[in-house]
Write a structure and sequence with these properties.
- The protein has 149 residues and is mainly alpha-helical.
- The chain has eight helices and no strands.
- 31% of the residues are buried.
């Protein structure tokens, strides 16, 4: 067999159709269906966005351990401007690890300061740690974000 007998098959169109189907299932609230499609693709892709989508499906299914794993994979592939930090903050907050939640939300805030929900999460977290000055600052940021929407 010569080397000319080998070729690389382009499956881009199949993957795009799978991605669209997964997005549609997610939007329809069928998180387990979307998860199945995303997991079929995640083993062959090193995309931070795909890992984020898998994490989001697990998050919606209240499987926070697996959600955290995939959000962390996403962050390991792309640290900057990654929405995984918002969800990681939510997971840590649910686990009552306020310090880690704040750390994640601060990272999210650093690249998207106009995100009202991140500002409110930070305000609430700082208030629960009796850090009222920081809480007030983020309350004001949240109000300012809302005024400009």
């Amino acid at each position: 067999m010569t080397t000319s007998d080998y070729y690389i098959q382009d499956n881009t169109d199949i993957e795009e159709k799978k991605l669209e189907a997964a997005k549609s299932l997610f939007q329809a609230g069928n998180y387990s269906g979307a998860l199945k499609l995303y997991l079929d693709m995640v083993n062959t892709s090193y995309s931070y966005k795909l890992n984020f989508e898998v994490g989001r499906c697990y998050y919606k299914l209240n499987d926070f351990d697996n959600a955290e794993e995939y959000f962390m994979r996403s962050v390991s592939l792309e640290r900057f401007k990654n929405p995984s930090f918002v969800f990681l903050g939510n997971i840590f907050y649910k686990r009552e690890d306020i310090s880690k939640a704040i750390e994640c939300w601060c990272t999210a805030y650093s690249y998207k300061p106009e995100d009202e929900s991140v500002c409110l999460n930070l305000a609430t977290s700082y208030f629960s740690k009796d850090m009222k000055f920081q809480s007030v600052i983020f309350c004001r940021f949240a109000v300012a974000c809302n005024l400009f929407l």
